[in-house]
Backbone:
């Protein structure tokens, strides 16, 4: 929050002025504040790191920051379970888990988000046998609008499946119980590859690596491919100087290139070709969390689509064709990752199908809508679903048809937040008004969890 009371997200292009902001020190304090806001007819939203690119957090009511509800609360090494405060940053959690000889099985390429924010928006890493981060949730604790505390567990599976990826529409998550694995090392390899070869060998590359992703720069025929594989080799991380040079290239040099492209858009194709020529191969072994996440300081906005894996290459080729046809000024690479099918989360973009995620970006200060709208049109033609934490231009009636468990989620939402306390303009657009519709009307009462204790 700025001194003026204005909240701004990480990318700097979404702002709001809440009536009140609060960093509760306990779940009880949070429950009191939430119930008071609800009684006054105010909406309640929650912010973590502010790393979503949409107006998902924005409110003129109560804005809760959960930074003080953070840290490991319980560790069961034998069972492979940990309970963690909802406001814990992924970067901090990784270090804390490592001290116990544990790790998350997968991570995205940024670790600045809060655990609850990352889970609630369907954030993911890459690895065709691994689901998005929310699939690691075994249980979570919610505070509802009236201050009631609700434990979401497999004893009430319908609630848990709605709560894993909820966009904050059900209540305030105060803690999560996660399934973890023994700490492990990864051999990390990256190199340039011709785009035609990358797409021609795509199934092989995805299927033969634990974690595979690639970046392709529009206006070039080059992809940067990254493969991370589990190994029993001794850890041999990059030297500090080598890592520093790589981070400078990925941030400092790339920032300069982006600024040049923003000022001189006609030079973007040439600048992209220069960047691809600067990409050097690398190979090292390090602890998993140090390999997965990278430091990103270049500011941008982003759109990402979850697509059936089988159409990945075709969609990419169509996006590149439209960029050239419409002479779109695209200086950022397209990022491509892969995840397993997910049926543990009603609103998971990977629900029911092995998924390729395609992310497109635009540097701060540049017009993003023409490019993002063109990408959305292509993705929709191939049964795409948008990432909930990124920009998209869809509304609830369009989204409902793309999620087989949509009505099941809405049934839980209607029961847990019947007055729409946790709704804002963004959620009204993408989820619609609170209310049971379609097949949700027949959901059995016993599938919906019962509140437990009052938080005051």
Residues:
């Amino acid at each position: 929050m700025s001194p003026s009371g204005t909240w701004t997200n990480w990318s700097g292009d979404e702002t709001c002025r809440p009536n009140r902001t609060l960093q509760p020190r306990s779940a009880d304090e949070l429950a009191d504040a939430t119930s008071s806001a609800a009684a006054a007819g105010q909406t309640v939203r929650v912010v973590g790191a502010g790393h979503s690119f949409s107006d998902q957090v924005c409110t003129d009511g109560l804005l809760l920051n959960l930074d003080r509800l953070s840290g490991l609360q319980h560790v069961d090494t034998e069972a492979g379970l940990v309970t963690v405060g909802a406001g814990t940053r992924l970067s901090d959690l990784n270090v804390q888990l490592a001290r116990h000889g544990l790790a998350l099985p997968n991570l995205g390429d940024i670790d600045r988000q809060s655990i609850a924010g990352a889970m609630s928006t369907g954030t993911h890493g890459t690895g065709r046998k691994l689901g998005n981060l929310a699939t690691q949730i075994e249980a979570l604790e919610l505070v509802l609008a009236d201050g009631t505390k609700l434990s979401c567990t497999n004893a009430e599976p319908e609630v848990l499946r709605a709560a894993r990826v909820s966009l904050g529409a059900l209540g305030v998550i105060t803690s999560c119980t996660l399934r973890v694995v023994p700490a492990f090392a990864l051999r990390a390899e990256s190199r340039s590859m011709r785009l035609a070869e990358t797409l021609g060998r795509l199934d092989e590359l995805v299927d033969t690596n634990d974690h595979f992703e690639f970046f392709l720069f529009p206006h070039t025929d080059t992809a940067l491919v990254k493969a991370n594989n589990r190994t029993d080799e001794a850890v041999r991380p990059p030297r500090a100087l080598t890592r520093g040079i790589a981070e400078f290239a990925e941030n400092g040099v790339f920032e300069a290139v982006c600024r040049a492209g923003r000022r001189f858009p006609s030079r973007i194709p040439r600048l992209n070709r220069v960047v691809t020529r600067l990409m050097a191969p690398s190979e090292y072994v390090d602890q998993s969390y140090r390999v997965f996440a990278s430091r990103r300081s270049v500011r941008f906005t982003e759109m990402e689509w979850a697509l059936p894996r089988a159409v990945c290459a075709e969609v990419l080729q169509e996006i590149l064709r439209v960029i050239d046809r419409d002479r779109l000024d695209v200086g950022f690479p397209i990022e491509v990752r892969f995840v397993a099918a997910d049926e543990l989360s009603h609103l998971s973009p990977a629900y029911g199908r092995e998924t390729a995620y395609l992310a497109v970006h635009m540097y701060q200060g540049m017009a993003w809508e023409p490019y993002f709208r063109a990408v959305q049109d292509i993705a929709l033609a191939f049964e795409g679903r948008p990432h909930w934490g990124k920009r998209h231009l869809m509304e609830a009636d369009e989204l409902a048809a793309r999620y087989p468990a949509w009505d099941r989620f809405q049934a839980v939402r209607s029961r847990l937040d019947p007055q729409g306390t946790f709704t804002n303009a963004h959620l009204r657009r993408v989820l619609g008004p609170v209310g049971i519709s379609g097949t949700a009307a027949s959901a059995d009462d016993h599938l919906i969890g019962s509140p437990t204790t009052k938080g005051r």
